[in-house]
Write a structure and sequence with these properties.
This protein has about 60 residues and is mainly α. It has one domain. It is built from three helices and no strands. It is globular, with a radius of gyration of 11 Å. The two termini are about 15 Å apart.
């Protein structure tokens, strides 16, 4: 994922929060350089592979 330009991540973050009740704002906090750690956490919480998760984020 690229850095948060133009609200790209904020828009997707809000959609993910609505779709998955078990996610928190902290789970979706974007930190440059720590993207892989965030994806790993989300993958584990949602029971999806990293690729499935990336595909989901892209299609939101």
């Amino acid at each position: 994922m690229k850095a948060n330009k133009g609200g790209y991540w904020n828009t997707r973050k809000e959609k993910l929060l609505k779709m998955y009740q078990n996610l928190s704002q902290k789970d979706l906090e974007f930190k440059v350089g720590e993207e892989n750690a965030m994806l790993e956490l989300l993958s584990n919480k949602l029971g999806k592979s990293n690729q499935e998760l990336l595909n989901l984020i892209i299609t939101l």
